[in-house]
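subagent[fold] <- orchestrator: predict structure for attached chain, return tokens only, no commentary.
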Amino acid sequence: MTDDHRQIERDAAVWLARRDAGGWTGRQQTALDAWMTEDVAHRVAFLRLEAAWQESARLQAFATGDLAGRIPARGEWAHSPYFAPSIGSEKAILHGRRAALRKHGRWPVFAGIAASLLVAAAIAGGFAWRDYAHIDRAAWKTAMGARQVVHLPDGSTATLGSETDVRMAFSRGERDLELARGEAFFDVAHDAVRPFVVHANGYRVTAVGTRFDVRRDAGQLRVVVTRGLVRLQSARDTAKPPAMLPAGSIATVADGDVAISQVTVDEAREALSWRSGFVVFHRTPLAEAVREFNRYNTRQIVIADPSLEALRIGGNFKLDNSDAFVRLMQAVFPVQAEQQGHEIVLTRKP
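subagent[fold] -> orchestrator:
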């Protein structure tokens, strides 16, 4: 847990103790709402601390020194020298805390309240600094031609394509994954508090609850969205505004330039047919079609004659059946194929 996280927890305890002391005004509620809006971590800390405190009400008695274990009535804490009627903002709360220290030479009753809040949260299992410190880590790799469905701890799933390397670091405050190579389709469980972030090729692909695909290929990045809204932003150039990608968006990034095309959702899904073991081409250049097959087959197709690269291909093919693809090329186009070791070499027919 960092110092920032500790301070957030302490401040959340201050807010909760002040509210529970009674005499809470609309002005104070507005100030609390503003503090929670400033940062997701503020809201997470307060709500979890509040839930834990409610589950550990008996500790409130200890906070007031009632050794009999009597839970004090709402408003009894207002007798603390810390609480002043004029307190209505975060700054005032923190100032009141320091003033009480100077006046009494010790922590006021508030310190016991806030400390008990933190202890209660720890006992209840909802304490945010433990959540920040505890991170679920995992990593998955697939071999060439393989596909794997991974069930993530938040209820999301990731479908990994051929030769894909994904690393996960999930905490209570964030859901981060790194796509080191390959392609993965994410079906994200909705969680407004914890955005789902995929780091790939110097970019952050962020979602809350949606379905999208991220692919790293030959130094390029592609993002396809089939449901919801995704934010694509450079992790290096944070001054550059992010691109917002609704369902049906296909974004490609090359050399720092982002190109976005809008298609139907069905067309976007068709671009991800690799999940079913197929690939669909619509007037696709032969060079691009060959690259797609080579991602899924150990026996690589090589175009020996550059004049063949621009030939346009159409059709629906099984990704693990490159032989059928090559046979079709020979039947339809002026192409001949020759087996050379682990390669299928394509040349133009004489």
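orchestrator: received. Logging for downstream: The domain at 277-348 is CATH 3.55.50.30 (Phage tail protein beta-alpha-beta fold). The chain is about 35% helix and 30% strand.
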